[in-house]
Design brief:
The chain has a seven-stranded antiparallel β-sheet with strand order 3-2-4-1-10-9-11. A six-stranded antiparallel β-sheet has the order 5-6-7-8-12-13, with helices on one face. It is built from 18 helices and 23 strands. Helix 10 packs across helix 11 (about 315-325). It folds into two domains: about 10-30 and about 275-460, Rossmann fold (3-Layer(aba) Sandwich); about 35-265, Glutamine Phosphoribosylpyrophosphate, subunit 1, domain 1, CATH 3.60.20.10. The longest helix is centred in the middle third of the chain and has 15 residues, at about 285-300. The chain is of the alpha+beta class and about 500 residues long. Helices cover about 30% and strands about 25% of the residues. The protein is globular.
């Protein structure tokens, strides 16, 4: 058993809940997917898709796939692991065509299985249809129960269910079927689909997850983040609007439908953690949003210290902002091993017991005798931050002040972020004062929700803040859980 830092008798009930969940404590909040699509004749679409996925690796590191069309057939290469381990020259060269869609994913609760690696390809008589999805469909189980009895699902993915619902909806072509099925789906979906002759992309009416359009010479690209466009040398055109359906074929790009959006709800947590800092959403560079959040937090919760440091990498931009606004020098004390967590080889027991040291190594000589402000993007379960504080105090830090550049995460996400159950979210059961005691910090402060909204420069009524305030933009009663779905599939 892993040694605890204090006896069970001395802990509160809430503290024991999180100690019990310690085995999962190094798992941050994660987006479930990154998607990429390209249409361009005379272009090596598979190779470009590979590099597009490579730049979206932060959105999913446990499975990847590319599906291409040559006008006659769809062909796929999929596998478990990082993009660079799934594909090689031989596999890329085997994918010949003029259009492709690609996907990189995290496994959801229930395990990482090859059958769930996307793109999902529906094989039907005389036609094929492939889908790459970022999001989560809340009513997927109800939709599955209403499918024709002759349909046999091959995965535990809500994406496959969406595909069959679209296929069985009214319409003389795929665009019309997508349009007529739109309101059947409850939840989040940024989706790129592929037929033998065209690429179709669409986004739910709330606009939870991002989806952008770019152009590379005569080829068009659709993907999750603008950083992927930059990587392949494409020019950003615009974001796909919530409720919009576009098609790309030999005639170019056209809007084929628009479902009215009554309430826009872009995920505020994309700015906090999920997206790469060099991406742009709603005309805002993510790095600048994070830097502003640090500046606002410095004004909301000042404290005297010798240096400001970040929990790399998602806390770096905010820490720079905090340093700038407070006048306290910025420095590095935590050196990150960026490859930990990206391997399927389990550490030997005594190495595993080192916990956070697998991921971060402190600069002992710089820490000693210093009052340090640690800036991080969020605290989920609290156990990782607890280990960081202990590690730095063992290195001789005089004071450790924690500043978090988001409000407390109190509620699970049903719209495409792989959040733990509510009982594992430390802020849902503890006050800030109790969390401070649990992580053994000298002080703890979070950015206010209003402060984070201000940093985003997006209108408050166009943001989803449900993980911070429990106010979901739609009913999530009986929200879809893939681990439950797996037991009934």
């Amino acid at each position: 058993m892993r040694k605890k830092n204090f006896s069970v008798k001395s802990t509160t009930r809430s503290e024991r809940v999180f100690l019990k969940a310690e085995e999962n404590s190094n798992k941050p909040l994660r987006d479930k997917c990154g998607i990429f699509g390209i249409y361009g004749k005379g272009v090596d679409v598979a190779r470009i898709s590979f590099f597009g996925l490579y730049s979206l690796q932060h959105r999913g590191q446990e499975g990847a796939g590319i599906t291409v069309t040559d006008g006659k057939n769809l062909k796929s290469v999929k596998g478990l692991g990082l993009v660079s381990s799934v594909f090689n020259e031989e596999k890329i060269n085997s994918l010949k065509g003029f259009a492709a869609i690609a996907h990189t994913r995290y496994s959801t609760t229930g395990g990482n299985k090859l059958c769930n690696v996307q793109p999902v390809v529906l094989n039907m008589k005389n036609e094929e249809f492939a889908l790459a999805h970022n999001g989560n469909i809340i009513n997927a189980m109800d939709l599955a129960k209403n499918l024709p009895p002759d349909i046999k699902l091959t995965s535990t993915s809500d994406t496959e269910i969406m595909g069959w619902v679209i296929k069985n909806s009214t319409g003389k072509n795929w665009e019309e079927k997508i349009l007529s099925s739109f309101k059947k789906f409850q939840g989040a979906f940024s989706m790129i689909t592929l037929t033998k002759n065209k690429l179709i992309a669409f986004r739910d009416t709330y606009g939870f997850r991002p989806l952008v359009i770019g152009k590379l010479n005569d080829a068009y690209i659709v993907c999750s983040e603008t950083c992927a466009l930059d990587t392949v040398g494409a020019k950003f055109i615009r974001e796909i609007a919530p409720g919009e359906i576009i098609a790309i074929d030999e005639k170019g790009i056209q809007v084929v439908g628009k479902v009215k959006s009554t309430k826009k709800s872009f995920c505020l947590f994309e700015y906090v953690y999920l997206a790469r800092p060099d991406s742009i959403f709603n005309k805002q560079l993510v790095h600048q949003v994070r830097q502003r959040s640090g500046e606002i937090l410095a004004h909301e919760s000042p404290v005297g210290a010798d240096m400001v440091v970040a929990v790399p990498d998602s806390g770096t931009s905010a820490a720079i902002g905090y340093s700038k606004a407070s006048g306290i020098p910025y420095g590095e004390v935590l050196i990150k091993n960026r490859y930990i967590g990206r391997t399927f080889i389990q550490p030997e027991q005594h190495i595993r017991e080192m916990g956070v040291k697998l991921k971060f190594n402190p600069l002992r000589e710089i820490v000693k005798g210093k009052r340090i402000i640690i800036v991080d993007d969020s605290i989920v379960r609290g156990t990782t931050m607890k280990k960081i504080v202990k590690m730095l105090k063992n290195c001789g830090a005089k004071k450790i002040h924690i500043r978090v550049c988001s409000p407390p995460v109190t509620d699970p996400c049903y719209f495409g972020i792989d959040t733990p159950d509510k009982k594992q979210l430390i802020a849902s059961h503890m006050s800030v004062k109790e969390i401070k005691k649990f992580i053994d910090a000298d002080s703890l402060a979070y950015l206010s929700l209003e402060g984070l909204k201000k940093a985003s420069r997006v209108k408050s009524n166009r943001l989803c803040t449900s993980c911070f305030d429990g106010k979901y933009p739609m009913s999530v009663k009986g929200g879809f859980r893939k681990d439950v779905f797996e037991t009934i599939s």
